[in-house]
Amino acid sequence: MSFKEKINKTKLPEHVAIIMDGNGRWAKGIGKLRIFGHQSGVGAVREAMEGCVDLGIRYLTLYAFSSENWSRPKLEVQALMELLVNTLAKETQTFIKNGVRLNTIGNISDLPKRCQEKLLEIIDLTKNNNTCILTLALSYGSRMEIVESTKSICAQVLAGTLNLEDINEKTISKNLETNDLPDPDLMIRTSGEQRISNFLLYQLAYTELCFLPIMWPEFVREHLFEAVYNYQSRERRFGKTS
Fold first, then answer.
1. How many Cα neighbours within 13 Å face the side chain of 70?
2. Res. 56: pLDDT tops 80
3. Which of 161, 195, 217, 221 is 20 to 30 A from 43 (CA-CA)?
4. Is 54 tagged catalytic?
């Protein structure tokens, strides 16, 4: 019996987040340039997205490019930006066919103008889709997100639109870039690394974590199904007792 057949459709995670790690190491391992690994990882993105649609998972967030990734070699960054534009163009019909709405978080203004234009184009084309919300974290860093959230809350207090005593967890969440998304129920990271890497630090407070030993280009939807199946065997207590 496959993992998909074992999954209880009444206990699905509402939101799955993925750190897509290991592209470069996978490519080097087979004697190729790092960009070949990134190109090969596009198929894994499609597998994750269509796997979520297949199961009925409503939210998928992918850590596509961190704010720290700008420090990588210039040629690699340029190639990644070009790959982003080309992939979005090629996958537009896949989004539409699967009812996927594209969303982004991060400092999108840091991206080359061509990338920004293509992102906005696909966001507009898919704005009425509601089967699955695919959020790409681009030029994203969670610590900076929290800093900007703090600034926004301080500005509201200074402007008199928010009372200091009224600040609570909901206030913080409302001022994060993910304010229209539920917190992830399950976070998957490939490559065998077991860290969060400045990804959704506030939002992952009670998220179930799954670390896979495979590299991202090796990821197929069966890995998603296995992670979801294992997620369903865990007891989520949110700090409470059983």
1. 12
2. yes
3. 195
4. no
